[in-house]
Amino acid sequence: MAEGTYTLNISCPDRVGIVAGVGTFLAKRNAWITEANHFADRASGRFFMRQMLLANSLEISSEAFEAEFRPIADEFDMEYRLTDNRIKKKVIVLVSKLGHCLADFLSRWKSGDYDVEIPCVISNHETMREMVEWYGVPFIPIPVSRETKSVAFEQMEEIFDRYSPDLIVLARYMQVFPEKVCRKYWGKVMNIHHSFLPSFIGAKPYHQAFDRGVKMTGATCHYITSDLDAGPIIEQCITRVAHVHTATDMVRIGRDAEVQALAQGITYHLEDRVFIRNNRTIVFYQ
Amino acid sequence: MAEGTYTLNISCPDRVGIVAGVGTFLAKRNAWITEANHFADRASGRFFMRQMLLANSLEISSEAFEAEFRPIADEFDMEYRLTDNRIKKKVIVLVSKLGHCLADFLSRWKSGDYDVEIPCVISNHETMREMVEWYGVPFIPIPVSRETKSVAFEQMEEIFDRYSPDLIVLARYMQVFPEKVCRKYWGKVMNIHHSFLPSFIGAKPYHQAFDRGVKMTGATCHYITSDLDAGPIIEQCITRVAHVHTATDMVRIGRDAEVQALAQGITYHLEDRVFIRNNRTIVFYQ
Amino acid sequence: MAEGTYTLNISCPDRVGIVAGVGTFLAKRNAWITEANHFADRASGRFFMRQMLLANSLEISSEAFEAEFRPIADEFDMEYRLTDNRIKKKVIVLVSKLGHCLADFLSRWKSGDYDVEIPCVISNHETMREMVEWYGVPFIPIPVSRETKSVAFEQMEEIFDRYSPDLIVLARYMQVFPEKVCRKYWGKVMNIHHSFLPSFIGAKPYHQAFDRGVKMTGATCHYITSDLDAGPIIEQCITRVAHVHTATDMVRIGRDAEVQALAQGITYHLEDRVFIRNNRTIVFYQ
Amino acid sequence: MAEGTYTLNISCPDRVGIVAGVGTFLAKRNAWITEANHFADRASGRFFMRQMLLANSLEISSEAFEAEFRPIADEFDMEYRLTDNRIKKKVIVLVSKLGHCLADFLSRWKSGDYDVEIPCVISNHETMREMVEWYGVPFIPIPVSRETKSVAFEQMEEIFDRYSPDLIVLARYMQVFPEKVCRKYWGKVMNIHHSFLPSFIGAKPYHQAFDRGVKMTGATCHYITSDLDAGPIIEQCITRVAHVHTATDMVRIGRDAEVQALAQGITYHLEDRVFIRNNRTIVFYQ
Questions:
Q1: Do D23 and B26 touch (CB under 8 A)?
Q2: Cα–Cα distance for residue pair B104/B263, rounded to 1 Å
Q3: What pLDDT was estimated at residue D228?
Q4: Which fold has domain D89-283?
Q5: Distance from CA of A244 to the nearest CA of D (A)
């Protein structure tokens, strides 16, 4: 993500004059727009807009911006958010035993692809501790059993509340989140499911896919809701499979699609490209 | 499909000596093998084999071949079929109102991709008559209403029985086949379903896909069973979609994937590349 | 293409205030924006913008629009074009012997995908006459030999000048256009080349690809210049190939990618989504 | 790769009786075939065959196998190789400064995907030392300057000779190998080139791709020859790019295709799926 930019995200009821209103506001503050996306959702009558601004072109502070923008926002009944991209976003990752998605995330982070802070990685197993600590990231083990589940999730919620992360990534984390946490962190908890949703919801999707004899398998990156694997989809990737592949082969082959779909979803979220509308996402690709 | 070849398809319980037995048999008849595929399905313990032979390398007739092969087939408990590719296969196509899959089939047929005979195209509507007749193919209208359905399918069955087609293609034919016909023509009736099965079974799959907010839509070519959209899958193709696409857009965008999946499935079937095992297919790609 | 819309295409030097200026202009005329795309090319310092407007939301005629927009265009040094999408675009197609790209174009046109007028199809062979006339489109044979080439192209130029087409499609037309026509119809003549450019320029690209032993082959849709296969690329598609495929197989297999790349390129052009900047295209995908 | 298997690779002039000869030989030794691939290259008249055998089904040792197979090999003028997959292959990796391909290789190795021994990683820079050593793999720095180049490559050749690796991977290693080493290790040195070959040979392919304005960029895994980027291609992958992407963006976006193409190439090589014939590869996919 480029330094020295702001991202302005807006959604509001669609009507004439939004672009003019926002455009004039920005031009008066001398804002240099480097990227702009609009989407008018005719089904819901809602308008979505994302603008990237060069920070040093703006003649006012972000605080002043927010204050001065308020009347326009009120006029058009806007939800809006101005993000200063010079401030690192915080990402907490949760993992169980399978580490490929986590390894890819940490590797991209180390190479500079994700310019974020990682307060910690949380896991219900010890498997990934060594790798996480090699990257210099704190590893917090929180075992989850049927008896300890509610305590474990309270502990996690405390950690979330302490760091107030911009994104929580379930990188093959095999525990269902309680509804309360889903609601509190709505739109901030991203899961990677190892099937082409809505096919093969729940456990062992590759085995389900094998049993159905599909010729392609996939992975789906989505925001979680309290309904299992039913939240808004951000990205999907697929891989061809054939009769030679057993369910075990598919587990191995499918990893690349999981890694790829999750990496895309994370990038879109960190670059504030994703809007949620009902159970759908608007993703403004670059 | 090259002229002047035989295809030998075999399936049997897996054990040592199959390849040697068949190979020796073929070598003794001087058979020149141009393509060979094997698959040992360790789950079911079954072995599948497809061999392409140059017809003019064989020193015996196909009748003599079949007779002489019988002892080996018995020894290994084989199901087998020798296909003389110089004899054109017969394909009957069924269509309702949407003609893109039919148009693609006829266009490829005219260009020589499919070296087959088309005894007729059957439809429950008049929409495609003009195009079918332009290609010089008989068009048989068989309207289907709730009242006439059983009569209509008896009429179709008679047509099938008369021509004994090698393949019946449901090229966006929107009527469910009666169980009796499904059984009689098992493994010969191919459907194109406009979703990535097992997602979005049944009516209006693009609208279902839109409602779920998927980022990819697909098409599935499969053999029919009496269970709707549940038969063995032969090929699947996908297309990316985004928030800008309405269900109507998806109907339009998805057509290419339908055409592509069906064309592949037809090619595989006509080249005898497909074996069915339970509810799965083995497809020997070239 | 939806009826009842205008498309406004603008390019100009990048600076602050463009969006505000255009947005305010549009809002004052009550223009309802259904789709908007911007791109600030930081390398060249040029800004590109495409807006779709609902025709019946505009309170002025397109002539009045053009007149009233002039001062803004001058202020920002804009090139701009307002297209009334209720007026059908005109497309002339040229083909030699291989008809798959033409057949696909006509089939999509007949199905309503391309809401255009086809004044004629021109060919240097008789091969495709029958199909073209079945679609009710005039077929104009213009044979080209070394001796007749200059006369032939003068004849074609006259036809182009007569109809003033919005797009000329070379749908596997195997003659190089003279520089004069390239210049006169710059940005309006689209070719499909059967390789992944810049690999395999010129004749028999599939044979070149076979000789190099590539694992993927492709097709490239581009605007023509007088340099062979060197013009701005609009779209590219690829197909996997393997050792089993001869050059002849690749010719057959590659057809789908050619059809697909060309169909995309045509759609982008007809929807005024393509800008040319030096030897590159900006394509605003939906 | 499953333990307890042999792979038998054969190539010879094509004629009748090869499959029978080999099949009978294997059946007499009770060999259980788990996977078999054949390819008759009609252009060159050469036949290629790969067979996977369960080791514990064979009633003789691999030494006895080799000895007993000799007469058949002589009869058919075969080149052949029997590989005992219980013996780990040795892979030496070379890298310069960009570590993504190396990181992916080590991560897959650690996760068990590659059941190989890594005697060392060689680099002309110190950049990747820390990561390599974290994986417990010896890191050998061999700086290369114009003056030291010949000495450096002699040192490398000594290392190669000492370990006799089955595969040498150039994982973004930015030095051209001397012809002598290319010849000595012919078919064992694999490079990843960051373009869709034969487009954009040599330095800075992404910048070349940007300048040409392509809509897809790619990566090519190939065996090296002394001609730069001209050796037999094993695998190619592509990524879509658009006008929004600068050459720098393409460097970043292209990494995934590089990693993917190289990982596939390595897998095919390690599973003895690749045959080289002139400047082409036959790759027997699973």
A1: no
A2: 8
A3: 85
A4: Rossmann fold (3.40.50)
A5: 7
Instruction: From D242, D240, D222, select the one nearest D232 (Cα to Cα).
Output: D222
Quick one: which of A244, A98, A76, A91 has its CA closest to A159? Answer: A91
Distance in angstroms (rounded) separating the CA atoms of residues C214 and D116: 28
If we measure between CA atoms, which residue out of A110, A91, A50, A144 comes closest to residue A262? A91
CB atoms within 10 A of CB C270: 20
Question: Which positions in chain A have a beta carbon within 8 angstroms of at least one beta carbon in chain D?
Answer: 35, 99-100, 103, 107, 111, 113, 134, 242, 244-245, 252, 256, 260, 286
Distance, CA of B53 to CA of C245 (rounded, Å) = 18
Domain borders along chain C are 5-84, 89-283
Sequence-ordered alpha helix ranges (H) in C3-61: 18-28
Instruction: Give the residue carrying structure tokens 């946490």.
Output: A181
Contact present, C203 and C195 (Cβ < 8 Å) = no
Low-confidence ranges of chain D (pLDDT < 50): 1-2
Paired residues of D63 in beta bridges? none
| Mean per-residue pLDDT, A50-59 | 92
The average pLDDT across A44-52 equals 95
How do residues A87-123 score in pLDDT, each as one tens digit? 999 999 999 999 999 999 999 999 899 999 999 999 9
Take residue D102 and report the two structure tokens written for it: 């190396």
Sequence-separated (6 or more) residues with CB below 8 Å from residue D58: D6, D29, D30, D31, D65
Per residue in B39-66, pLDDT (tens digit) is 999 888 999 999 999 999 998 888 999 8
| DSSP single-letter state for residue A130 | H
- Provide residues of D within 8 Å CB-CB of chain B: 16-17, 19-28, 30-38, 40, 42, 57
Alpha helices by DSSP H, listed for chain C, are 18-28, 62-75, 100-110, 129-134, 149-163, 179-184, 205-212, 247-270
Task: Reduce the DSSP state of residue C284 to 3 states and report it.
Answer: coil
Contact flag C24-A26 (C-beta cutoff 8 Å): no
Buried b vs exposed e over D55-77: b needs ≥16 C-beta within 10 Å?
bebbeeeeeebeeebeebbeebe
Query: Is B63:D22 a contact under the CB 8 Å cutoff?
Result: no
Contacts 24+ apart (CB under 8 A), A149-158: A149/A175, A150/A178, A152/A124, A153/A177, A153/A178, A153/A181, A156/A94, A156/A122, A156/A181, A157/A181, A157/A184
Asked whether A16 and C57 are in contact (CB, 8 A), the reply is: yes
pLDDT of residue B2: 47
Q: Which residues pair with B52 in a beta bridge?
A: B7, B35
The pLDDT value recorded for residue A130 is 92
Taking a C-beta distance cutoff of 8 angstroms, is the pair C156, C131 a contact? Answer: no
pLDDT band at C38 (very low <50, low <70, confident <90, very high): very high
Provide, rounded to the nearest whole percent, the portion of chain D with pLDDT above 70. Answer: 99
pLDDT score for C228: 85
Q: Which phi-psi region, left, alpha or beta, contains residue D222 (left: φ > 0; alpha: ψ -120 to 50)?
A: beta
| CATH fold of the domain at C5-84 | Alpha-Beta Plaits (3.30.70)
Interface predicted TM-score (ipTM) of this complex, two decimals: 0.93
Instruction: State the CB neighbour count (10 A cutoff) for residue A58.
Output: 17
A38 strand-pairing partners: A49
| Chain D neighbors of C216, CB-CB under 8 A | 196, 218, 236, 238
Does the predicted TM-score (pTM) go above 0.90?
yes
Task: Supply the residues of B annotated as catalytic.
Answer: 229
Query: Closest Cα of chain C to D37: distance in Å?
Result: 12
Angle at B163 between CA B160 and CA B166, to 5 degrees: 80
Structure tokens at A249: 């082969």
Tell me which residues of chain A have a C-beta less than 8 Å from any C-beta of chain C: 16-17, 19-28, 30-38, 40, 42, 57
Compute the nearest-CA separation of D201 from chain B (Å). 31
